């Protein structure tokens, strides 16, 4: 008598991807090597950082035109463009239009990079900020405190023992300029960190697998982008090297961003309030004080990290992205996901 409930024939001709719960479990939280972190992602290809750069540049230009339009609408003319200087001696970051263009045009690198990364989809945007699972706000707050103390000591030493005489007592800030400067300087500094210590350093590191070379290249480009005299460029080079080493060793941008923000806030506030002047001509004393401050900050942050684990990984910074990407690849190509796991998280 035939079986009234025959078993369904076994299908061997196609592969049905398993549910996400059937995938290999994610690894324990780990902090990847920061400069080569892009290679931890299954979708990494050597040319994709270049696509991110090109798209980011297009978005940056578009956002820049928007800022010009806002400033022109607010002032009723384009005369403010003549106040945007090509050197620090004639730079305007103290009026509303000046601050919006001088600082805002750099700050918009953050959304420009975010949009480019979203389109290219080679890795998550959070991977630019750290290789240990995203931005650590607690560590950032602690580093701001350390940076504030060191900058305060540096200012006292310079004011008391080596007064520059650059104070003219002329308040350059307008009310709107002061507010915009206060709001935009942190974003301007973090945007530079995302580009130089984030995109650039990680791109060179992923290409060469040489962290020291990645630190050096970003510092050289960072220094070349600042219109100072030779001593001033050397000062920025020292900062770039110190901040690059900090980002490399802490596996993220929180510590370098904190000192960058504090340094720029002091410079813009002192100049805007007539207590000092930002100049393209930097003297040797400034270089020495900047070098000592950067070195002291580097040592303190690295010691704090080794002593109290300020920058310990909170989660795996690549596993979730890779798991989702490989699941989509498996569904699209009918390939078992185990084949994508091999070598993904090296």
Short account of what is shown:
This protein is an all-alpha fold and 346 residues long. 60% of the residues lie in helices and 0% in strands.
For the structure shown, list the relevant keywords:
346 residues, mainly alpha, 12 helices, 60% helix
Describe the secondary structure blueprint for this structure.
Blueprint: H1 48-75, H2 96-102, H3 104-107, H4 109-120, H5 137-161, H6 175-208, H7 211-224, H8 230-250, H9 254-272, H10 284-308, H11 319-333, H12 338-341
Helix pairs in contact: 1-2, 1-4, 2-6, 5-9, 5-10, 6-7, 6-9, 7-8, 8-9, 8-10
Mean of all residue-level pLDDT scores: 88
Shape: globular
Number of domains: 1
Order of helices and strands: HHHHHHHHHHHH
Number of continuous helical runs:
12
Largest sheet: none
Poorly predicted ranges: 5-26, 341-346
The rounded distance between the terminal residues' Cα atoms is: 58 Å
Query: Per DSSP, what share of the residues sits in E-state strands of 2 or more residues?
Result: under 5%
Number of strands: 0
The helix-and-strand class reads: mainly alpha
Question: Percent range for helical residues?
Answer: 55-70%
- Rg value: 25 Å
Give an overview of the whole structure.
This protein has 346 residues and is an all-alpha fold. The chain has one domain (31-308). Helices cover 60% and strands 0% of the residues. It is built from 12 helices and no strands. Helix 8 (230-250) packs antiparallel against helix 9. The protein is globular and about 70 Å long. Mean pLDDT is 88; it is low at 5-26 and 341-346.
